[in-house]
Design goal:
Helix content is about 45%, strand content about 10%. With about 500 residues, it is of the alpha/beta class.
């Protein structure tokens, strides 16, 4: 399909005459219940959880399950406008070695924008028909002090929501107020399902929400502790941020005018702890793996894929690359990623049923190197203050306990520190999207080649700030990045016979 074909504006009326080769919902969307509220309708949710449910809705008897999307943040206004104009339909384009395929997803039936009408969002969540509230709010959205692992009760969002419970700003405030209303009405709590890249994400959500509600109303907290379920899950699908280039591709290649399409890879994985007292969709019928223990899968994915992304994105941006496949085309960066997995992480991972680790790592290299995805390094590098502590530092801690190697893990941290000063080696500005952005930039510029100021952020590094081996390794790598340049520093890290080499 090319430019000569007429372009169809994507909406419900268009489903009867989608362009040739574009699949769409074959179920009656008007019959689907809006029983799952999802907070954070970004690209990943729309390429992952919404795709699973769209597949499931094509099977008989599944209409009790559909999504109502919720945007809480001011920047979600653009998503509101796009989704409502298109009756919440959008296109997912899979891009792989075999080419591209497009499919219109219909499992999101409604979109609520909280800054327009907080009460509508609260009442939707409090409604008896809502059985699950799921979330993709990024790793930084859980108000965790990374150094202690405890709830950050001093955060401005939390302070506001405790003071104004009926007009909340953040996800915790919305969850607590909606659950309080259900409690008052004699309704069971909905299941709270985190779909973010956190180890034990359900357990983390439970701990943080109970800490928040303990401050708000101990009675509510006790009720949730007794009755509310927080299943763990592991999610995986590389999904770059949508760009104007993507919109143009959908228009020219597939003949659809879509304001917010999603580009993604063919790979798709979801492992879910099967703990849903209020019921759940039969996700296992469309390829999700329901299990009693998500942790082995989660640990493997976070320590290899997510930490691997951190290993290549900052050094890649320092080299002036824009996309993940460009970084993977660089032999030194590819070796950094591969050696970090093989030499410093694999030994820490448990055996995972049905998974060949060597094959999994080979697949990661292929996925990261996929040129069709064009995954932005800047996207991968967002919220480093949450991602480095979640994905990289746990392996550092385990290796320190066993006396194992940490050189490449430490080099990854040093590359993040160097990135934080804001300019690549070519003098190109590097974007910093992080809740700690101002402080990180200030400390990076203050310290320069000295890692001490950044390592002193105990809310990120905790006791690692005082671990001599880690401090020495990060300090040496950062000094080399400034003194010798990124290429020489990387080659030194790869060539040194041990992490204690000078």
């Amino acid at each position: 399909m090319g430019n000569d074909n007429p372009t169809i504006a994507l909406n419900q009326a268009a489903l009867g005459h989608l362009p040739d080769g574009v699949a769409g919902p074959a179920y009656a969307r008007q019959d689907v219940a809006r029983s799952i509220v999802h907070i954070g309708v970004g690209g990943f949710f729309r390429s992952h959880q919404a795709v699973y449910l769209d597949q499931l809705l094509h099977l008989p008897g599944q209409t009790p399950w559909g999504y109502c999307g919720v945007g809480l943040l001011p920047h979600d206004a653009a998503m509101r406008d796009a989704m409502r104009a298109q009756d919440c339909l959008y296109t997912v384009v899979e891009r792989g070695a075999q080419g591209e395929s497009a499919r219109v997803i219909g499992s999101v039936l409604e979109f609520l924008y909280a800054p327009d009408d907080a009460e509508a969002v609260l009442e939707k969540m409090a409604d008896a028909g809502t059985r699950i509230v799921s979330l993709t709010i990024t790793e930084g959205g859980y108000y965790i002090n990374q150094g202690t692992g405890e709830f950050d009760a001093a955060h401005a969002d939390i302070v506001h929501d405790l003071a104004h419970p009926r007009t909340p700003r953040c996800s915790f405030g919305y969850l607590a107020e909606a659950l309080q209303r259900r409690r008052e009405r004699g309704l069971a709590p909905f299941t709270v399902m985190s779909c973010d890249n956190l180890q034990n994400n359900g357990d983390v959500m439970r701990k943080m929400l109970l800490a928040f509600t303990q401050l708000r109303d101990p009675g509510l907290s006790a009720w949730l502790e007794q009755h509310c379920a927080f299943p763990n899950s592991m999610v995986d699908r590389i999904t770059p941020a949508t760009t104007d280039e993507h919109r143009a591709l959908v228009r020219q290649r597939f003949g659809l005018a879509d304001a917010w399409p999603v580009m993604t890879e063919p790979f798709l994985q979801w492992v879910v702890e099967d703990h849903f007292p209020g019921g759940r969709p039969a996700w296992e019928l469309v390829g999700a793996q329901m299990t009693d223990d998500v942790l082995p899968y989660e640990k493997m994915k976070l320590r290899l894929l997510n930490a691997g992304h951190q290993s290549l994105c900052y050094i890649g941006m320092l080299f002036g690359y824009e996309f993940a496949h460009q970084a993977m085309d660089d032999a030194d960066i590819r070796q950094l990623f591969s050696d970090m997995m093989d030499k410093e992480v694999t030994a820490l991972l448990p055996l995972v049923a049905g998974i060949d680790l060597a094959d999994y790592k080979r697949t990661l290299i292929e996925r990261f190197a996929n040129p069709a995805i064009r995954d932005q390094l800047a996207r991968i590098g967002t919220e480093g203050s949450a991602r480095i502590p979640k994905f990289v530092l746990p392996s550092v801690r385990e290796q320190l306990e066993r006396g194992g190697p940490i050189k490449l893990l430490s080099f990854t941290v040093a590359c993040w520190f160097r990135y934080l000063n804001g300019s690549s080696e070519q003098g190109v500005a590097m974007p910093l999207n992080d809740p700690y952005a101002a402080r990180l930039r200030e400390l990076a510029l203050l310290g320069g080649a000295d890692a001490g100021p950044l390592l002193s952020m105990r809310e990120l590094f905790g006791e690692l700030s005082e671990q001599p081996r880690f401090v020495a390794q990060v300090g040496d790598a950062l000094a080399r990045l400034y003194r010798d340049g990124a290429r020489a520093a990387l080659r030194h890290a790869l060539a040194a016979p041990s992490e204690l080499a000078g």
